[in-house]
Amino acid sequence: MSLERSLRNPEIAAKITEPAHSIKKMMQEWERLVNALEAQWEIEGYFLLDDYLFALDMRSSLEERINDASPDSLASIVDALRNLDARFLEQTVREKPGEEGQLRPWLKPVAGRPPEWLWDRRPRIMPW
Question: How do residues 96-122 score in pLDDT, each as one tens digit?
């Protein structure tokens, strides 16, 4: 966090209480997307395509960072993550090549970045 604070003016730096990309923040972003999907995008504010892609990136980052969690909280984090993943899968469909309305042009995962299933799914209802 000292690096994050050093990049901000002192007033803003004093308000930083956790890293911008902590496991907690990444889980919140993933949950925000899943909730928006389940609400068929009827949420406060507007969910842009960039927000969707950012949430996918946060989910992928969670896969990489989950082992950084304390042993005491790891099981509950994994359970919550699996629950959110299942809800995400219920609200999305796998894209098929040549299908209309694809996100594939915007989904550009890093090769081999887990989880693989994340990068070929689109919302059942697309607001964009």
Answer: 777 766 787 777 766 777 888 888 889
In the beta sheet, which residues pair with residue 123? 92
CB-count burial class (<10 Å; 0-12, 13-18, 19+) for 55: buried
**The three-state (H, E, C) secondary structure of the chain, written as one string:** CHHHHHCCCHHHHCCCCCCCCCHHHHHHHHHHHHHHHHCCCCCCCCCCHHHHHHHHHHHHHHHHHHHHCCHHHHHHHHHHHHHHHHHHHHCEEECCCCCCCCCCCCCCCCCCCCCHHHHHEEECCCCC
Find, among 61, 70, 1, 50, the residue nearest to 26 by Cα. Answer: 61
Residue 121 near residue 93 (C-beta atoms within 8 A): yes
Structure tokens at 52: 């969707």
Phi, psi of 45, deg, nearest 5: 85, -170
